[in-house]
Amino acid sequence: MADEPDYSSRVALPPRTRVAVGGARDVTEALFTSGDRKKKIQGTIFLGLLLFGLSIALIAIAAMIIWAFVAGGPRLNVNLLTNVPSIVTPENAGYRTAILGTLYVIGGVILLIVPLGVGAAVYLEQFANPANKFNRFVDLNIQNLAGVPSIVFGILGLAFIVRGPLSLGFVAAAGSLTLALLVLPTVILASREAIRAVPSSIRDGSLALGATVWQAVWRQVLPAALPGILTGVILAVSRAIGEAAPLLLVGAVTFVTFNPSFFEGGYSTLPTMIYSYAKRPQEELQVLAAAGVVVMLLLLIMINSVAIYLRNRFERTW
Amino acid sequence: MSTQVVSPGASSSGAPIRNLEAPGPRIGEKIIKAVLWATATLSILVTTGIVISLLVPSIGFFQTVSIWEFLTGTIWAPAFANPSYGVLPIVVGTLTVVVFAIIIAVPVGLSSAIYLSEYAPTRVRKTIKPILEVLEGLPTVAIGLFAFYVLTPLIRDLTPFLPWTGPFSIGVAGITVGLLIVPLVASVSDDAMRSVPRSLREGAYAMGATKFEVAVKVVVPAAISGIIAAFVLGISRAIGETMVVLLVAGAGNPVLSFDPTKGTQTMTAYIGSTATGDISQGTITYDSIFAVGALLFLMTLAMNVLAMRLVKKYREVYD
Question: How much is the pTM?
Answer without folding.
Answer: 0.83
